[in-house]
Design goal:
It is a single chain. This protein is mostly helical. The protein has one domain: Orthogonal Bundle (ABC transporter involved in vitamin B12 uptake, BtuC). Helix content is about 75%, strand content about 0%. Strands 1-2 form a two-stranded antiparallel ribbon. The longest helix is centred in the first third of the chain and has 27 residues.
Amino acid sequence: MSAMTADPARATDDRPRTAEVLTRAQSRFPVLQIAITAAAFLIGALTLDGFASGNSVKSLLILASLVGLAGIGQTLAILIGGVDLSVANFLVVGAVFVTQLTQIYGISFASALLLLIPFTAILGGFVGWVCHRYNVEPLVVTLAMGTFALGLMQIQTEGMIAGGAPQWLMALTSLRSTTFGLPFPPVVAIWAVVTIALAVFIHRTSVGRRMLAAGANGRAAGLSLIKVRRMWIVVFALSAAFAGLAGVVLAAFSGTVNTSIGGPYLFQSLAAVIIGGTVFGGPGDYTRTVIGALMLTVITTVLIGHGLATSDQQILYGAVILVAMALYGRGRKLSDRI
């Protein structure tokens, strides 16, 4: 046989080796998600007028930041081995605190924030305690707690959840706003800072590492003297508090507040978490949720530009969440796949 003749066995061996290398690279860094996001942006730039303009890019970042901030609680809950369906209603709670309750009780914005954080954290922490103490599915408990929290807001506002955000708050998400002279709105800078802080918290602090251990294998974590119940309480407290704070930003973006303001973000934020990690695999990390939010925003915007209806968007989000719930119901913790 000639020396130039290819060895079929060697070629066959190279293919699995290449696939293994790509799989390892994907598990360390969301290469595929970034590539899809870049491809979708390129398609939008080539097919939609003004898609790649400065204002359009800023709009994409603002929309993605809202989804990403709403997805903080979702990410933490999934990392511990649960799912948080109270996010939408806690978004409403946060928005009501800084719009209506400040007027009803005559308190300042800072005072409203100081009340909002412990209020949401206590309710969320109680969810974590109930779920772990009684081995109840977080799907049910978080949904109930979200309804309870929204009911409390309706009592405080006498059933009239409808208000407007002040102009200075709306500047957080305005296209015309700048951040220390830089040409992007403050909400984008806030999102970037939060992303870095969460990356440090999850991977560089003892609490974050214990949280990951408890989510990966609660029984083994308990044998390692990790207080798993405490981790559940902390995670769901943080989830609710972050959702409440995201509601403040959402009020700034929408300008008005109503009971349905947080509804779309429940599905979008959960879809961003799943797209960022579960579908393609990888370790637990909020950075993947950030990339998922960017990917979802770019793809959705391009599809809307080409005539995608609101009903079609709901079908898209619903399909993604059905996949997530199927995996969750089969006992495969989502935290093992994010």
